[in-house]
């Protein structure tokens, strides 16, 4: 599946998704651990190893030219479109800068759409021409136990119900006004959401943190450049 950037972000679903089952309480940790062997796309890079590889036999050299769009969905967002969508039980989960969307993989019909309204000041960067640009972009979400987890442009982690898109919790975890941008898709393992800063420019030091899946409560944080008093700060 190939994604492209245009005035309106769009994607095309090829003849691969045939089953249509509502998302339930999964995927479970067992399913995520075995994601490398799955034909579904359960993590942003397919599996925890980040291989992005699926050993499918349906598309071959002699039939690739026969591929045709089954359906097309236009997200209606004029910003950068860079997510790796997740696919679970016939539902595609994708993100734009401010929206999280669940789409039927066979028909491109929207199951639900959640639109985030920023609460805090977002980062603004002066461009070489003197204009102002927001460098934030979303590269996807995480999916586990019936929950979709993503970051927002103003420094929040939010959890949505995978079946309905209902917001379950939100947690302010960084300072977007200081360019701490969480552009990467989070990862979930057991009861922790692992997320970090996706930018090292503009004076950002960077960190990786663990947050409780149930409510977003911070559990730990590792500074990739140590603060004063932390191991390595003296070097």
Cα-atom radius of gyration = 19 Å
The level of helicity is under 10%
Strand content: 25-35%
Task: Characterize the overall form.
Answer: globular
Structural class: mainly beta
Domain tally: 1
User: What is the CATH architecture descriptor?
Assistant: Beta Barrel
Low-confidence stretches: 1-9, 14-23
- How many helices? The count is 1
How is the CATH topology named?
Lipocalin
Strand order, biggest sheet?
A: 3-4-5-6
What would you call the quaternary organization? single chain
Q: Overall pLDDT, averaged? A: 83
Biggest β-sheet: count, sense, barrel?
A: 4 strands, antiparallel
Q: What is the end-to-end distance?
A: 46 Å
Could you name the CATH class?
Answer: Mainly Beta
Written as H for each helix and E for each strand, in order along the chain, the element string is EHEEEEEEEEEEEEEEE
Number of separate strands: 16
């Amino acid at each position: 599946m190939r994604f492209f950037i245009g005035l309106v972000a769009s994607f095309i679903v090829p003849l691969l998704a045939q089953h249509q089952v509502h998302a339930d309480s999964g995927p479970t940790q067992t399913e995520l651990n075995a994601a490398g062997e799955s034909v579904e796309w359960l993590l942003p890079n397919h599996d925890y190893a980040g291989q992005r590889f699926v050993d499918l036999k349906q598309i071959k050299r002699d039939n690739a030219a026969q591929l045709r769009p089954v359906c097309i969905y236009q997200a209606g967002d004029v910003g950068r479109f860079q997510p790796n969508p997740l696919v679970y039980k016939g539902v595609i989960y994708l993100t734009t800068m401010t929206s999280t969307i669940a789409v039927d993989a066979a028909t491109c019909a929207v199951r639900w759409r959640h639109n985030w309204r920023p609460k805090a000041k977002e980062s603004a960067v002066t461009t070489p021409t003197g204009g102002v640009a927001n460098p934030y972009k979303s590269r996807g979400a995480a999916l586990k136990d019936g929950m979709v987890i993503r970051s927002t442009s103003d420094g929040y982690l939010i959890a949505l119900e995978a079946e309905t898109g209902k917001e379950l919790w939100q947690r302010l975890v960084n300072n977007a006004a200081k360019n701490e941008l969480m552009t990467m898709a989070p990862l979930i393992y057991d009861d922790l959401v692992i997320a970090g800063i996706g930018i090292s420019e503009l004076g950002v030091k960077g960190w990786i943190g663990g947050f409780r899946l149930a409510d977003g409560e911070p559990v730990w944080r590792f500074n990739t450049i140590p603060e004063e008093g932390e191991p390595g700060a003296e070097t």
